[in-house]
Amino acid sequence: MRPAAPGATSPADDPDAPLVAALRQGDERALAELIRRHGGRLRTLVLRFSGRRDEADDIVQETFVVAWKEAARWRPGAAPFAAFLTRVAINRAIDRARRARLWRWTGLAETAEPEDPAPGPEAAMIDAAETRAVLDDIRTLPDRQRAAILLAAEGDRGVAEIAATLGVSEGAAEQLLVRARRTLRTKLAARQDAGEGDQT
């Protein structure tokens, strides 16, 4: 008999297994009980990761949306369902942190981020596509603007350090960042407008 994989548990040992079975049948009471059991723990975990209560609440909600949609993917006897929920929550928190850093580094935080239209795997794909699009936009910037914005992204460097690295005045470095961010915002807004047009 093959030994159990590390972290594996038998269906009889996992107290959530009956609830997940009911969840697969669309039982909303099972979802409510899973939220009661694990919601507080997940919120505490994500709050420690992000430091933002509103974001922690959103991520926990998204985690249980994923649980509702993808309960069939969990296999009894694998890792406990609680571990599945934890992995989903942490991955969502990491994805949000990466996106927030990208928006902050490029100065796009002043522009409203595209709303997450469908929390879950589809939304993660949309986020990844938008991240790639912004990086592609950065690559199209003039050389000095691209260098300035990438230096700003690398360790949150200040204008003085960027200016010294590029061999320009602080005023010139500031203008490079302003122009680069203006271009990136314009491209982002154009994509958002195009996306809204496709949905009509």
Structural key phrases:
2 domains; transcription; sigma factor; Arc Repressor Mutant, subunit A; RNA_pol_sigma-70-like; single chain; RNA_pol_sigma-70_dom; disordered N terminus; RNA_pol_sigma_r2; mainly alpha; Rna Polymerase Sigma Factor, Chain: A; 200 residues; 71% helix
Describe the structure.
The chain has 200 residues and is mainly α. It has two domains: 8-93, Orthogonal Bundle (Rna Polymerase Sigma Factor, Chain: A), CATH 1.10.1740.10; 106-192, Arc Repressor Mutant, subunit A. Helix content is 71%, strand content 0%. The protein contains eight helices and no strands. α6 (143-153) packs across α7 (159-166) and α6 (143-153) packs across α8 (170-199). The longest helix is centred in the C-terminal third of the chain and has 30 residues, at 170-199. The termini are far apart. Residues 138-184 form the RNA polymerase sigma factor 70 region 4 type domain. Residues 34-101 form the RNA polymerase sigma-70 region domain. This is RNA polymerase sigma factor. One of its GO terms (molecular function) is sigma factor activity.
CATH architecture of the largest domain: Orthogonal Bundle
Shape: elongated
Helix content: over 70%
Counting structural domains, the number is 2
Radius of gyration: 22 Å
The name CATH uses for the topology of the largest domain is: Arc Repressor Mutant, subunit A
Tally of contiguous helical segments: 8
- CATH superfamily membership of the largest domain: Winged helix-like DNA-binding domain superfamily/Winged helix DNA-binding domain
* Arithmetic mean of pLDDT: 78
Counting helices, strands and paired strands, the structural category is mainly alpha
- The CATH C-level name of the largest domain is Mainly Alpha
Return residue spans where pLDDT drops below 50 for at least 5 consecutive residues: 1-7, 111-119
**Strand count, sense and closure of the main sheet?**
none
Order of helices and strands: HHHHHHHH
Oligomer: single chain
Separation, N- and C-terminal Cα atoms: 57 Å
